Amino acid sequence: MFKKYCYSFLLLLFGYSLTLQGQDLGTGYENGTTYNVLYRNDASGKIYAATRGFGASFRRGKHINAKLRSFYEIDGQNLKYPKETKVTGDAADRRRFVYGKINNVLLIRAALGLQHTLFAKADNKAVEVRYAYSLGPTFAFAKPYYVQVQRITKAGQTENALAVFDDASFSDPEYSSINVTGRGSILQGLSETKVYPGISAKEWASSPLT
């Protein structure tokens, strides 16, 4: 009989302890004192617009410890002059073109980096401060920008052709006039693409809002 009362008392005590723990956890979520969940791996991506073009990027990170995180990222962006102005051509397809443009440029960046948590977020009401830096190669792909032109020789003959704005034919005395009538195909000049390698480095500080 005595053992039966002891077992009943222990079960009641254990149940009361679990109830208190559950109440403490719930209170922590309500008053904002619980610690953040730390994910070992994470990934993110974005599409963005800038003054010099549009781009997309992807980043994947891995936590080394609670305050140090390594990551790699890949970024692609088309590069253009901020003051480019498109003009409607006189060709049959009336393709718009940018007068004076020489190349279409695409930037591809890849980088490895580290992120340090300088001040950790102890609770949901605190502010976390991070510092990060990265280093990696950059490649610029420059494809010639072809336009449709109509050239008139001194003999009065008309020629339709494709050319770039730095083409020597624009200053060739053989032609009395050269008119740009529209943009060439986007695939035109693809085989003439030149690659310019480089290195990029970044460092920044951030403070997440959540």
Protein topology:
Layout: H1 2-31, E1 41-50, E2 53-63, E3 68-79, E4 86-88, E5 96-98, E6 103-119, E7 129-144, E8 147-153, E9 158-163, E10 175-183, E11 194-206
Antiparallel strand pairs: 1-2, 2-3, 3-6, 4-5, 6-7, 7-11, 8-9, 8-10
Characterize the overall form. Answer: elongated
Give the N-to-C terminal Cα separation. Answer: 57 Å
Report low-confidence residues grouped into runs of 5 or more: 2-7, 9-35
- Count of separate DSSP helical elements: 1
Order of helices and strands: HEEEEEEEEEEE
In the residues, how many domains can be counted? 2
Give the strand order of the largest sheet, numbering strands 1, 2, ... along the chain. Answer: 1-2-3-6-7-11
Helix amount, in percent? 10-25%
How many strand elements?
A: 11
Mean pLDDT: 79
The SS-based structural class is mainly beta
What report would you give on this structure?
The protein has 210 residues and is mainly β. The chain folds into two domains: 1-34; 35-206, no CATH class. The chain is built from one helix and eleven strands; from the N terminus they run H-E-E-E-E-E-E-E-E-E-E-E. It has one helix spanning 2-31, and strands at residues 41-50, 53-63, 68-79, 86-88, 96-98, 103-119, 129-144, 147-153, 158-163, 175-183, 194-206. It has a six-stranded antiparallel β-sheet, with no helix packed on it. A three-stranded antiparallel β-sheet has the order 9-8-10, with no helix packed on it. A hairpin with a 7-residue loop joins strand 4 (86-88) and strand 5. The longest helix has 30 residues, at 2-31. It starts with a helix and ends with a strand. Residues 2-7 and 9-35 have low confidence and may be disordered.
